[in-house]
Amino acid sequence: MFLAIAMEFRGLARHRGRTPAYPHVRLFLRGRTLELSLKAYLLLRGASTKDLKNVGHCLQRALTSATKAGLAVPAITPKAQKQMESFDRFYRAKRFEYYSSVDLLLPSATDSYRAFWRFADLVHQAVLRSFLAAV
C-alpha cells in the first residue's frame, strides 16, 4: 500500500505542467514519495508499524534504516547529502505541508534540490527492484 501511494505521489510531483502557484506542494509530494518508498521497503524486510513510527518523518533516518535492512543504493554525493539535510529539516517539521506566510521564504525552487532528487529517484528505483525480486 505504501509503495502504491508513493508511486502516485511521485507521478504528481514530477508533473511537468504549468508552474504551480504553491511549489511547496510539489516539494511535499517529493518528500512523501521518498518517505513512503523507504517505509514500504522496511515493511518488506519485516519492520513493524512501531518501527516505522520510530522512523517518523525523518528521511535521513528512513534511509539509514533501509540501507541497514539491505537496500542497495549508490553512495550519496556530498552535494546531494547537503541538499537532503536541508530539505529534511523542513520536511520533518512539516513546513512544506503546513506553512504560513513566513514559510513562503522557504526554499521553493525544485532546482535547489536537483542532486537530492536524482539520488531520491535512484532510491525509489532500488525499492521497486526489491519488490519485483520479492514477487
Summarize the structure.
This protein has helices at 2-13, 23-44, 49-55, 59-68, 78-92, 114-134.
Count of beta strands = 0
Low-confidence parts, pLDDT < 50 over ≥5 residues? none
Distance between the termini: 15 Å
> Could you give a short account of the major beta sheet?
none
What best-fitting shape do the alpha-carbon axes yield? Answer: globular
**What do the pLDDT scores average to?**
83
Beta-strand percent range: under 5%
Please identify the structural class as seen in this structure.
mainly alpha
Rg result: 14 Å
How many DSSP H or I helices?
6
- Any idea how many domains? 1
Helix content: 55-70%
Oligomer: single chain
SSE order, one letter for each helix or strand:
HHHHHH
Protein architecture, described:
With 135 residues, this protein is mostly helical. The chain has one domain. The chain has helices at 2-13, 23-44, 49-55, 59-68, 78-92, 114-134. Helix 2 packs parallel to helix 4 (59-68). The radius of gyration is 14 Å and the shape is globular. The model has no long low-confidence stretch (mean pLDDT 83).
Element layout with pairings:
Layout: H1 2-13, H2 23-44, H3 49-55, H4 59-68, H5 78-92, H6 114-134
What labels would you give this structure?
mainly alpha; 6 helices
